[in-house]
From TrEMBL:
<keyword id="KW-0573">Peptidoglycan synthesis</keyword>
<feature type="compositionally biased region" description="Pro residues">
    <location>
        <begin position="87"/>
        <end position="98"/>
    </location>
</feature>
<dbReference type="InterPro" id="IPR005490">
    <property type="entry name" value="LD_TPept_cat_dom"/>
</dbReference>
<dbReference type="GO" id="GO:0005576">
    <property type="term" value="C:extracellular region"/>
</dbReference>
<dbReference type="GO" id="GO:0018104">
    <property type="term" value="P:peptidoglycan-protein cross-linking"/>
</dbReference>
<dbReference type="GO" id="GO:0071555">
    <property type="term" value="P:cell wall organization"/>
</dbReference>
<dbReference type="InterPro" id="IPR038063">
    <property type="entry name" value="Transpep_catalytic_dom"/>
</dbReference>
<dbReference type="GO" id="GO:0008360">
    <property type="term" value="P:regulation of cell shape"/>
</dbReference>
<dbReference type="GO" id="GO:0016740">
    <property type="term" value="F:transferase activity"/>
</dbReference>
<feature type="region of interest" description="Disordered">
    <location>
        <begin position="81"/>
        <end position="103"/>
    </location>
</feature>
<keyword id="KW-0961">Cell wall biogenesis/degradation</keyword>
<feature type="active site" description="Proton donor/acceptor">
    <location>
        <position position="177"/>
    </location>
</feature>
<dbReference type="GO" id="GO:0071972">
    <property type="term" value="F:peptidoglycan L,D-transpeptidase activity"/>
</dbReference>
<keyword id="KW-0133">Cell shape</keyword>
<feature type="domain" description="L,D-TPase catalytic">
    <location>
        <begin position="103"/>
        <end position="226"/>
    </location>
</feature>
<dbReference type="Pfam" id="PF03734">
    <property type="entry name" value="YkuD"/>
</dbReference>
<keyword id="KW-0808">Transferase</keyword>
Amino acid sequence: MRRPIACWPRWWHQVAKHRRPPRTHQVRGTLLLGSGATSLAVGLTAVFSPSLSVASDDQAVTPTIVTASLPTVEAPIVEQAREEPEPQAPAVPPPPPESGEGRRVVFDQGDQRVWLIEADGTVTATYLVSGSRFDNLDPGSYAVRARYRHATSFDNSGTMEYFVEFTTGWSEPIGFHSIPVDNAGNLEQSVDELGRPLSAGCIRQKPEDAAFLWDWAPLGTPVVVTA
């Protein structure tokens, strides 16, 4: 069976021929549009692209150095450690004004203190002692008249060292010596108790002070006792 073929009048073909745009026009329009787009793209590129200048070989390129100012940072203040004042030795009390002159040993009963004084008035040593708890030593001037490296108490209750005798009490010698030690080997008083009248007549001293006075005061050394 034959396929039907549409038949059109001749005049329709003529009209269609005039209405259909030629192919060359379509291609040309496309080319023109493409050319216009290219021109537009080139124009936009020229407008929005930054201009670049290229230095020639003869021109030196100077680098631009950008400096930035850093913020000022203050160094922390370090407080120096305060120097603590060195502890000062306690002031040496002067001897009593009525204690005489020259090189001498001074014993003040009121302060329970001894001074060893040089001929020029310099105090070589001063320290607390324990004198008699009885009123058996009169104020006045004496002199060292005997020395005993080891001695025994009058009632044989103990011993003492570095005995320096300068007078006699009611019946027994009176002098400077170390704190007595009883027969059991105990001190009759503590070192901390020096400065209080606790003896039976003599002047008690620390062992090192008693040894120092023993070496410092030979026979004949003046001894002044004040109230």
